[in-house]
Fold these 2 entries.
Entry 1:
Amino acid sequence: MMRDQNLLSVKNLRTYFYTEDGVVKAVDGVDFEIKKGETLGMVGESGCGKSVSALSIMRLIPMPPGRIVEGEIYFKGEDILKISEVAMRKIRGRDISMIFQEPMTSLNPVYTVGNQISEAITIHQGLNRKDSWDKAIEMLRQVGIPDASKRAKEYPHQMSGGMRQRVMIAMALSCNPELLIADEPTTSLDVTTQAQILDLIGKLQEEFKLSVLIITHNLGIVAEVADKVAVVYAGKVVEYAKTDEIFSHPLHPYTIGLLRSVPRLDMKKKDKLQTIEGEVPDSLTFPSGCKFHPRCFLCQEKCRTKEPPLIKAENGRLVRCWRYNEI
């Protein structure tokens, strides 16, 4: 596949959860693309739909109560929402792998980390038990775990958070996937370990020619690793652009608010961090019109009644805001 072709294309994705209280529209019209070898950062506050978007791509939404009600997810030109579960199992873990948000709960506590990695290798690559074990040890070495042959025989609780995260990365890359989804890969890690994990993902991306979808609320991580950024709010992409464009000239008021709330090196002691007023809306009772309008410092009357589409603005950037359309 050529660099200029999309490895993954997500179009109008809608994933809802049907509960006793009503329909939760966790993802309500998400669009983005990832090219071969490219890194896309997906950012937004907790509860905006980032992780549900990732689980939808993997087809790991619990049904019931969840259901992908609309949309297309093209992977290498094929809509993987239309293939059978048997066919999806062959893609999941082999062609598309995911690093889950919390390694302690994602790893099985009653199996050694070596067994958990080698099992995936056996299933997807058909190697025998010994060869799968040897490759599992090699993967632990590649992610920087010392004395890998000994560590492979340990259980998750015997490892630190950083080590468990490295095990998750080793497992995700053990079958040489083309797309790696990293959901908050540095959550709960100290800043030194965070830097090591990000450096490791970058190094392995270069080595294995990976495409990466990195999901985070940390704009610093996005600035460091992403080629493009999708800003998500209330289940929708509200801005989509190259990383340098997002940071140098954000368009959507929500993106502007996120960037204003990040500490800067040039800040003085008397300076205060700005915050985005209000709270993330309840997904059961989204406001009418633009979902961000109750918190928006640039809100106009039309914003309260009619939801803006995702439109092309300057330089082909995408933004969901009436300021860039006819009011």
Note: The mean pLDDT is 88.
Entry 2:
Amino acid sequence: MFETLRRDLRAVFERDPAARSVAEVLLLYPGLHAVWLHRLAHLLWRNGFFLLGRAVSHFSRWFTGIEIHPGAQIGPGLFIDHGMGTVIGETAEIGADVTLYHNVTLGGVSWARVKRHPTLEDHVVVGAGAQILGPITIGAHSRVGANSVVVKDVPPKSVVVGVPGRFKVLNGQRVIEPNREDLQHDRLPDPTMDMLRNLGARLLAMEHTIHGLHLEDDGQTADAWVASGGSHI
């Protein structure tokens, strides 16, 4: 438990260049407060103290502006930057060293008492305002762009953008040091534009093909006219 708490603290310094001192982070970082209060709430929840767990969660929401259901399973090193408006549902599962920005929702899409919230694997980064909905999995080392709406599984090492979210696999290529978190969720592909470019290229190829067929048909007509002496014109 104490090692997990220390790792949560280290995550702030590793991923926020604005963090200047341990005292500042301990006293003034609501994301860290929310994670630590959740660990207490989850401990109570897991041991059957459901009302107390919800009470701690409720206090945490009032104190930090971040709502985490005490049933959510959160790995070590979660960093919630700013965090205001972030909501994490009951059956959500978050791996190690995940980063969430403000207004992120890990939401459910069912009233049934089943797994209904997302799973985020290790080293996932979720941009501000992103909505990840349903019992889907975001693969390890993936980035979700700001304000994306993700409703389908995302393979590891992918980038997700758009509404609904479309992903592009990074083919295992990392753009920063392998021992650092890839927080550059502003560097995102545009799958919609890629699709439009592909459609444009296919349309151009079809036009060339049709133009070639017309030229071939015109040549056959001319040859037939010459062969007949032009009498049928």
Note: Confidence is low (pLDDT under 50) at residues 174-179.
